[in-house]
Amino acid sequence: MEKVKIRLLFFGITHDITNCREREEELSDGATVATLRDELMETYPGFRELRSFAVAVNEEYAAEDVELKERDVVAIIPPVSGG
Amino acid sequence: MDDLIKLDNLPLRVEQVCDLVSAPENGAITTFTGTVRSSTGGRSVSGLDFEAYAPMAISEMKKIADYAREKWNLSAVAIHHRTGKLNIGEIAVIIAVAAPHRASTFEACQYCIDRLKETVPIWKKEYFSDGEVWVSAHP
Question: Which one of B117, B121, B135 has the shortest CB-CB distance to A11?
Fold first, then answer.
């Protein structure tokens, strides 16, 4: 099965949960935002305790069915609290 | 033009942001200034730290400014947000909206700060005497 390699960025509390700011991740070909979300919740129990988290693909908020492609920059966006 | 939307790790100044939207045809400039409060939910805050996903924060702030300019027929919108460590009373965000007449500027300014708090990828960590908390992260 083909793999796609993406760049994952973690911000705010998700950086604390993963102890990582940025890393590469290999996903199965055809993986979507929803797939990634499930994998993260599986890997890091801390993600399940969050109010929610959004996913941005190449600096735009992405819906759950968006397919991730080779070299996408995917940011994990926990609830924002600017202002 | 690019100065209108900015993340800055140095102190923000209201007058500087107002100057960016000031123009002879504008009879009104409405500003919102958000500052660091000394307590949250009864707990005493010692300071806070803003982290931003900089390129996306800028593009989301631009979207807010563009939408507001169009919807309320504003001449200009400036949004400056601070990053890094801040002390009590320091300015976290300044929004300035300018238009020929004042009527639409209040609602427009309120929209900008409300929307910023919903969509712009910036995170606030509050420091207390006995620990630290990422604001809004948990239910």
Answer: B121
Give the residue carrying structure tokens 């300044």.
Answer: B94
Q: Which CATH class is domain A3-77?
A: alpha beta
A75 in contact with chain B, both atoms CB, cutoff 8 A: yes
Q: How do residues A40-74 score in pLDDT, each as one tens digit?
A: 999 999 999 999 999 999 999 999 999 999 999 99
pLDDT, residue B113, reads: 98
Homologous superfamily of domain range B2-129? Molybdopterin biosynthesis MoaE subunit (3.90.1170.40)
Domain residue extents for chain B: 2-129
A11–B contact, CB cutoff 8 A: yes
Q: Are B52 and A82 a contacting pair at CB < 8 A?
A: yes
CA nearest to B87, candidates B47, B126, B37, B132: B47
- Angstrom distances, CA of residue B37 to CA of A4, B16, B82, B110: 45, 22, 15, 19
Please judge whether B138 and A49 are an interchain contact, meaning their C-beta atoms are less than 8 angstroms apart.
Answer: yes
Nearest Cα neighbor of B136 from A82, A63, A64, A21 is A82
